[in-house]
Amino acid sequence: MRQQILNLDGISTKKIDTKHKYHIVKKSDGSYSSNIKLMMGRIDNACVFYADRIINTLFENELEIYDQLNVEYYEKLDKSKYFIYAGLSGESLLSRDEFKNYLEETVVKSEMKKSIYKYFYSFEVLYLTKNIQNLCRQIQDNLYFFYDQFNSENIFEGRKTKEGLTTIYSREGIIISSLLESIIIKTSSVLDYLSKLAFEAENLPPKFDEYPKRKSLDYSHGDSLIGQNKDDKKLKWSTDEREGTVFEDKHSDVLLIKKLRNHIVHNGFLDMEASIYENKEKGKLKERFILMPDYSEGQLDKYKGRTLFYSKDVKINQILPEILESIMQLTFRTIEILVNKEIIKNHEFIGIKATEINVDIPDLRPNELRKNPL
After folding, report:
1. 207 and 114 in contact (C-beta within 8 Å)?
2. Which of 123, 151, 181, 281 has a Cα at 20 to 30 A from 196?
3. Cα separation of 181 and 254, whole Å?
């Protein structure tokens, strides 16, 4: 297979067209690269660094205990995640009752029970950072695969479209639309996980006499808004700290992703017809596109029960990379502020704001991830 350039207009080329702002390169080995700046390496590294800061906060002056428990529950089990991922991932086959009984019948008798509870709890917080990393990677992978399918020669079950502007309902169109919907839903989920992480960091348990339940368990991005009037759900971020993060008040790209996500989840799809349009002139394909519903300031235009108007001729395949670049920039800045807040807490800096320090985040990832963060 030769190298192929995937373009936003659905027409692949052999060479990069410098007139196009964005492109994706599908290499001969099937891998991808792109000039779409989704900041995967920086987000991945920042999450690892932040997770390290959280452990330092939880095990302040007790890191040797954390290391000891890591040996006991990970190293001695041939690096099995049997205990630490129980109830969090398929990497552990421990049942709910087995994990519950171990905590309530075995750990409770240990002289180190508070430290063990804290150790297991720390993995629930680290699980939040890991899910942010995984979601961001999946968004990038789905984006590449979306444009790969969108640039396929035949996307209408081998049927050829007519001259001019036309569309044909097909299973390929359904697959392409499903990929687009998945990207939108996963991007919205990143907002929720960042909200859970920020809220949990503000509400770490003060003591571990028993195994705690995460405060952020049912927390979502909607709870983090600056207008939150419930004291027990308020996120203690100032207006300055929120600026440039996913918590910025009424950020248009954040609002739009959430509105699209809600429409997909509650209606089953973004567009019932899964419409992909082709425009041909003299038998030659000039453009493919998927229409974006009319919106303004992050809100879909609606009239009573009608929420999908298409008068503005906006093509979602053309604007998707810019929206995702924006969300990923907000994501990275959010983690930066979280890092700053944790460092201020660890070092007991009095009167210093999270926006007033600039932390150089070292690369703590394993060497193989530094070379290829995906």
Report:
1. yes
2. 181
3. 16
Q: What is the pTM of this model?
A: 0.93
- In this prediction, residue 112 has a pLDDT band, given cuts at 50, 70 and 90, of very high
Q: Which of 24-28, 52-56, 140-144, 344-348 has the lowest mean pLDDT?
A: 344-348
Instruction: Indicate whether 44 pLDDT > 90.
Output: yes
Radius of gyration of the chain from Cα atoms? 24
